[in-house]
Specification:
Layout lengths: L2 H5 L5 E6 L6 H10 L3 E5 L5 H18 L4 E5 L14 E3 L5 E5 L9 E3 L3 H6 L5 E4 L4 E9 L2 E8 L2 E3 L4 E2 L12 H12 L4 E4 L5 H11 L4 E6 L2 H5 L1 H7 L2 E5 H7 L5 H14 L4 E4 L14 H12 L4 E4 L1 H4 L4 H21 L13 H15 L4 E5 L4 H8 L6 E5 L2 H7 L5 E5 L6 H14 L8 E7 L8 E9 L5 E7 L1
Parallel strand pairs: 1-2, 1-16, 2-3, 3-12, 5-6, 12-13, 13-14, 14-15, 15-16, 17-18, 17-20, 18-19
Antiparallel strand pairs: 4-10, 5-9, 7-8, 7-11, 8-9, 20-21, 21-22
Length: about 475
Amino acid sequence: MPPESLQRMRQTKIVATLGPTSSDYDQIKALCDAGVDVFRLNFSHGTAQDHRGCAAIIRKVEEEVGRPLGILADLQGPKLRLGTFEADEIKLQQGQKFRLDLSPEDGNETRAPLPHPEIFAILQKGSQILLDDGKVRLRVVENGHDFALTEVEAGTKLSNRKGVNVPNAILPLSPLTEKDRADLEIALELGVDWVALSFVQRAEDVIEARKLIDGRAAVLAKLEKPAAIKSLKAILEQADGVMVARGDLGVEMPPEDVPRAQKLILREARYVGKPAIVATQMLESMISAPTPTRAEASDVATAVYDGADAVMLSAETASGAYPVQAVAIMDRIARRTQMDLSDNGGFVSDVPRQHTSADAITAAAKQVAQAMDAVAIITYTAQGSTTLRAARERPSVPIMGLTPKLKTARRLALSFGVYPVFTPDAKSFSEMVCKAVSIAREKGLAQVGERVVITAGVPFGRPGSTNILRIALLKDEDVPQEMPFHE
């Protein structure tokens, strides 16, 4: 990596989805070169063989570029859909009565099969049902254990197997279907770093997934239902990260409420020091156009201003005509927004309060780096907690996260401002300082005469024990001059 590339590192990470137009070596390497930090494997599409092939290519590219790349496996989750119609499509009129029931017979102009008894179990008179991503809105006027008589409030047509949403209701469903459980085993065999869990409604959904994953990957909760927003703090306690999945969230929540929900999620995730991704329709016009709309550019910039750890591309890179260009433009928008933040003092609002000595030391590291014009904060971590604390502070300088565990380095690829480095374990703090300075010089992060701030937990290997801060001045090519600050 050229020296200047790390000094000007983009702090907000980019997640790109792989698919039909981006599944071979040349495309994946080009996406990496354009700025991708984490690759998403969407298990709603593709075969196990497809995902195995992509994972193998990612690891090959990772070895070639010499930096950890994350792999995110996104599970499909339960999909609630209507059955089929006799004529494949029907017409609807506002105000007409329309029946949904468990009968497997094809639907017609007055009824449709809805093969999900769990939906009828939670419906009440007055409940709203959304069909086809909200294009059709129904209101329940009468219901039983196997049917719902509704009135059409909006929408003019329906066709086979359209999706069903029930806003403001917690459905008695596990977020893991049989397909998801099979896909999860495949993903874990591939050695993915993150597993994204769809249809999360409550903390118990995350706990169920964590038991199955058993520490083999980090768990990312996709927040796509209003019920999940109501349980946000409890979900954050159990998840390792979250995704603002604005697609389904925008169906079940009024559009004017989605921006507020996005800001709330990002603020709460940062408060607890866990990565948060903003996803869905970020540069959607680039599925077919070589440049984004001005509104899309503003949307990406807003996520950066709000302090998102990462922004995600879906169909833009999976099936779009301009996947590499989409990543390159997202990279440029994020960098330009980052420059504006730096010019205006960086992230000055919503600074997390310090609850522990480890939090206080990490907050001090940011302040010391700024006061002494240090060029970087270097953390030494086994499980990632020391580095995540540093990322939570949103410093204006890069964070180099040194770790003796490759899986930790790959997971940290998702975190704000972190440049993860996999390096053998150090036996003492002094050895770690020398190692940190040597790697910083090797990567072009620091030169002779410059300072870096170093944090770590001693003894090594104890999660959450950040208890030392050092300032290292690079005096010559061999030995740094340490300046003790706290121990």
